[in-house]
Structures are given as structure tokens and as C-alpha cells.
Amino acid sequence: MRSVGIVGIGSYVPENIVTNKDFELFLDTNDEWIISRTGIKQRHIAPKDMPVSELCYQAGLKALEDAQIAPEEVDLIIVATITPDYAFPATACLVADRLGARNAAGFDLEAGCSGFVYGVVTGSQFIATGMYKTVLVIGGETLSKVLNWKDRSTCILFGDGAGAAVLQPVKEGFGFLGFELGSDGSGGALLSQPAGGSMYPASLETVEKNLHTLQMEGKEVYKFAVRVMGEVSLKVLKNADLKIEDVDLLIPHQANIRIVDAAVRRLGISPDKVVVNLDKYGNMSAASIPVALDETFKSGRIAEGDIIVMAGFGTGLTWGACVLKWTKVGLEV
Ligand code: COA
Fold first, then answer.
1. Which residues are catalytic?
2. In sequence order, what E strands does the chain have?
3. What angle do CA 17, 58, 142 make, to 5 degrees?
4. Which residue segment(s) compose the domain that 98 sits in?
5. 222 CA distance to ligand 1 centroid (A)?
6. Which atom of ligand 1 is nearest to the CA of 113?
7. CA 219 / ligand 1 centre spacing (Å)
8. From the alpha carbon of 112, which atom of ligand 1 is closest?
């Protein structure tokens, strides 16, 4: 099996920022409540006419530029999203077309906020086995389009954005060292967008009942998240024969600062090794981890050989983590 790493990264968030104060104008909520319960101060929201494929295209373009790879060289594009442009065709195909990645296969992957981790784990298998050389994985969301803006317990939590990673073979001993993925469909109803699929096809009734918007049992999801974040991070380290002391950087899914803090306590990792940017972006679902990775790398905080853990959880329910030894140098194969 070949070693696989991330040789290019990029991200994109829409310009428009919605602060907690902005919510006070139309919701029974306030800045203090939102910050103390979630840690979120603001989020970026896409304009009405900007679909998720546009965010994914921008992030993908930057990642390819960062890797200095032409779109034609990409063998496969995976878009992790729960807010695709359409039920079908897949957003990955639309993004491939925009990028001019005419030699790429493409499919969407739906694993909620674990989507980017699921995506890089899936994409890296094609390279590890020698079938493909270059895979572009994008986590992108426009959750703003499926929120109920009258539901204060959900609409304040989420933001829009996209982050992308170019995967290629890297030198032995570097790149992805292990992963852990899991799911539990019995918790599916805890976080869902019920209508629009084959269970509740779109109808006047589904629209009237708001069933096309995100529905969440916040407390239950919170309990699940706190439990699973610590568990999956420890498991992935065990799979890679590493200890928590070996970790230079933990990039957790950015849902709620209290969930991150609980994981930090559980793992016994130093908080200065943990990336937090949810105050600026809210929960961007599949985009949270790659946007955080991109920002952290651009800030100069990641060095060759660093051990990085990325861990997420989300609708499904799903969870996933991967550990990598950082290098951005691709191998000529
Ligand atoms: N502003 C003001 N009050 C709010 C509010 C808001 N935006 N949202 C909810 N409240 C109220 C509730 O109505 C409730 O009022 P009540 O006591 O009169 O009934 C009170 O605040 C407490 O609500 P509760 O649900 O107990 O708050 P909480 O501490 O559990 O925090 C979440 C709510 C949603 C922030 C929290 O449960 C959470 O983060 N869950 C996980 C969500 C998540 O991460 N989802 C994505 C997973 S990928």
C-alpha cells in the first residue's frame, strides 16, 4: 500500500457575516446566550443565489493552486455535503465541470459533519491501492439554505463554507497513519432534514410543516457528541499505535466550544494543541475541519512531521477520525 498525504489545501467562505447581534433583530435570543452556550460569535452566510457548488469550486481551485496541480490531473473528486445543489446530479460532477477536471470521476458523500473525514479516508484508499494518483476531497455546506430561521435552537448554530484537500502519494511513513469511522442509524432522527427524499417527497404539506428544514434534538446530539469525540480520537490513535502525547494538533469538528472543551478534558490534551475557529464561522458541518486545517496551515502553525488528528461527528449518526503525519510533498509516481 502506498502512503497518502495532503499535498494541497484551500478554503472559501462567503463574504456576508451574520453576527449574534443580528439575530436579536428577529429572534428571541441574545449575544450573551449564544456565546455562553456555544462559543459562536458570528457565521458566514451565502447569498440566496450562491449554491454550495460555488463554494466548493472556489475551495477546490485554491487547493489545486496550492498543490500546483492542473485540473486535468485530478482522477477523482469527492464532495462531502448534506446541502448539495440538487438531489441529483451530484455536486462533485458540477464542481469537476467548473474546474475543468475533465478526467475526474466524481461523487458526493453524505456523512454530515463527519463528511470531510469520511471523504479523505475514502479518497486515500484509491491512492493507497495504486488505482489513482490524485484525488480532490471537498467538504462544503450551505446549511443556511435548509435552516428554519424562526427556530432559535438551531439557526444560530450554523454557517456556510467549503474546504478542500488534494490527496497524492507521499513518502513512506508520512501522510495518513490510521483512521476510525463509525455510524449508528438508530440516532438518525436526532438530526435530520426529513422531507424532500423518498420518505416524505416534497408536497404542500411538507412545506407547510417546515419539514424541509433542519430538525434537531439538541440535547441528545450534545450528549452523543461529547461521548463520541473523545472515544473516536482515542481509537484512531490506538489504530496508529500512537499516544495522546504524540499529537501536535487536534482539529475537532467545530460545533460547540463546550463539546470541544469536554473532548479536551477527556483526552487530557493541552488546549494549545487544539484548533478552535467556531467563534468566527459557527458549525459549517463538512466544511468545518478542512477550513480549520487550511487556516491553521496558513498561519504557520503546522510543520513537516507534525502528528495531526482530525475528528468529527454528525448526522447519521456518524463519527470519524484520521491521524496523519504532515508533509505536503507529493511523490512522483
Ligand atoms: N437563545 C436564547 N434561548 C435559547 C436559544 C437561543 N438561541 N435556544 C434555546 N434557548 C432556550 C431554550 O428554549 C431553553 O429554554 P427553556 O429552559 O425555557 O425551555 C433554554 O434556552 C435552554 O435550552 P437547552 O436546549 O437546554 O440549551 P442547551 O444548553 O442544551 O444548548 C444547544 C442548546 C443547541 C446549544 C446544545 O444542546 C447543543 O449544542 N447541542 C448540540 C448541537 C450540535 O452540535 N449539532 C450539530 C452536530 S454536528
1. 113, 253, 283
2. 4-12, 17-19, 42-44, 76-80, 105-109, 135-142, 160-169, 175-183, 191-192, 215-216, 249-252, 307-314, 318-325
3. 50
4. 1-333
5. 10
6. 48
7. 7
8. 48
Number of domains in the chain: 1
Cell of 85: 445543489
Please report, to the nearest 10 degrees, the dihedral formed by the alpha carbons of residues 181, 262, 148, 47 taken in order. -80
Using the predicted structure, report yes or no on whether residue 239 has a pLDDT greater than 90. Answer: yes
Against a cut of 0.85, is the pTM above it?
A: yes
User: Any residues with CB less than 8 A from the CB of 69 and at least 6 apart, and which?
Assistant: 7, 8, 134, 166, 168
What's at 247, amino acid-wise?
Answer: V
Across the chain, what does the average pLDDT equal?
97
CA 147 to centroid of chain Cα atoms = 18
C-alpha cell read off for 36: 455562553
State if residue 256 touches ligand 1 by the CB under 6 angstroms criterion: yes
pLDDT-based confidence at residue 306 (cuts at 50, 70, 90): very high
Is the CB of residue 255 below 6 angstroms from any atom belonging to ligand 1?
Answer: yes
Residue nearest to atom 41 of ligand 1 (CA): 222
Confidence of residue 255 (pLDDT cuts 50, 70, 90): very high
Tens digit of each residue's pLDDT (9 = 90 or more) over 279-295: 999 999 999 999 999 99
Given a contact cutoff of 8 angstroms between Cβ atoms, the answer to whether 185 and 13 are in contact is no
Question: What's the rounded Cα separation, in Å, for the pair 185 and 202?
Answer: 23
Q: What is the predicted pLDDT for the residue at 43?
A: 98
CATH number (domain holding residue 115) = 3.40.47.10
Closest CA to 79 of 91, 94, 66: 91
Q: What is the pLDDT of residue 51?
A: 98
Write out the three cell numbers for 289: 475541519
Q: Which residues partner with 137 through β-bridges?
A: 78, 165
